[in-house]
């Protein structure tokens, strides 16, 4: 059940980045352009390892993670990696979770992929959070 704890912790961070205040009456923990706290940043940096294009995403090196408005889907927010050279790259936390599930719980990976990573013509597939819950 370790994989469940990891997924729940990651979702807590992701949901802290909510795009509106309708999520169970809670507001957002992070505002746009705000960097994550050290604890959340550490978790996301570790999970970024499981992204299928992690080397491309990390590039020259990772410095920080912050919340941004997605460049293509303006009404949604997503996580972005701030590289050591100052460039910014958005990334899908869902693709990170899927990569981790393929290793630790392959039977769950297929269901997760079908639910969250199939094209649906929405910002949810871009790397963004359109909560209640990519790139």
Automatic annotation (TrEMBL):
GO terms, biological process: chloroplast organization; chloroplast rRNA processing
Residue ranges that the Swiss-Prot or TrEMBL entry lists as coiled coil: none
Domain of life: Eukaryota
Matches recorded under InterPro entries: DCL-like (IPR044673)
Gene Ontology terms: cellular component: chloroplast
Pfam families linked: DUF3223
The protein, known as: Uncharacterized protein
Source organism phylogeny: Eukaryota, Viridiplantae, Streptophyta, Embryophyta, Tracheophyta
């Amino acid at each position: 059940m370790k994989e469940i704890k990891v997924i729940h912790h990651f979702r807590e961070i992701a949901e802290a980045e909510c795009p509106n205040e309708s999520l169970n009456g809670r507001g957002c923990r992070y505002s746009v352009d705000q960097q994550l706290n050290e604890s959340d940043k550490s978790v996301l940096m570790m999970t970024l390892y499981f992204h299928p294009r992690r080397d491309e995403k990390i590039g020259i090196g990772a410095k920080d993670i912050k919340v941004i408005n997605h460049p293509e889907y303006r009404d949604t927010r997503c996580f972005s990696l701030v590289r050591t050279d100052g460039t910014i790259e958005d990334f899908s936390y869902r693709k990170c979770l899927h990569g981790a599930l393929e290793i630790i719980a392959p039977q769950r990976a297929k269901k997760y992929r079908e639910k969250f990573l199939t094209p649906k013509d929405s910002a949810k597939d871009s790397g963004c959070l359109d909560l209640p819950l990519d790139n």
